[in-house]
Amino acid sequence: MASMPEGPEALEGIVEVDDVARERLAVYVDLVRKWQTAKNLVAPAALDVLWSRHVADSAQALAALPEARRWVDIGSGAGFPGLVTAILIANDPQAEVHLVESNQRKAAFLRTVARELSLPVTVHPDRIESFAQRYADRLGSIDAVSARALASLPKLLDLAGPFLVRGATGVFHKGQDFASELAETTQSWAFDLLQHQSKTDPGGTIAVLRNVRHMRAETSRSA
């Protein structure tokens, strides 16, 4: 795979970006660099490739499910992909993005970006398990749950399960171990899977999981 451009043009061929979103993304990247020393948001080596390694890669979540407007992003970290998704759909009146990040310093950064860019974002400084149990019913219909570089697929479904079994679609960035993770996951979960080859990582996959249900629940219903 040829090296990607380092700037807004890194998103070409992945997702359409208007001038307002482009400006917001540029401010976001600047804020990551500004806060990096105090908050340790990303690996130091990533600072020179934020657009190609993080922004463009994150944009693939929305590209995989462009109709989704109500998102929950778990383990948000520095906001990849949650803040990128929020920026790209910010002008839609139906847009709503919930960022779940237990690290208080990173949660403070997420709130700062959301405030400065006037994004449709709510930051939840909470553990994913606790958040999911409390909010799966309270938030109502969620379109999608996203996660990037967070956990194995079986663990992701355990974490996001309360939303997924209520109808949300899982949109997960996965790496070269995806095949083995998938084999393990299908022992406990059933779902309809669509895979998109990553445009930023030769060994990466954007996995889209619909109609997620736990095998135990299906067994109970058929008994």
Automatic annotation (TrEMBL):
Its EC number is 2.1.1.170. InterPro entries: rRNA_ssu_MeTfrase_G, SAM-dependent_MTases_sf. Keywords: Cytoplasm, Methyltransferase, rRNA processing, S-adenosyl-L-methionine, Transferase. Its main location: cytoplasm. S-adenosyl-L-methionine binds at residues 75, 80, 128-129, 148. It catalyses: guanosine(527) in 16S rRNA + S-adenosyl-L-methionine = N(7)-methylguanosine(527) in 16S rRNA + S-adenosyl-L-homocysteine. GO terms for molecular function: rRNA (guanine-N7-)-methyltransferase activity. GO terms for cellular component: cytosol. It is found in: Cytoplasm. Belongs to the methyltransferase superfamily. RNA methyltransferase RsmG family. Specifically methylates the N7 position of guanine in position 527 of 16S rRNA. HAMAP family: 16SrRNA_methyltr_G. This is Ribosomal RNA small subunit methyltransferase G.
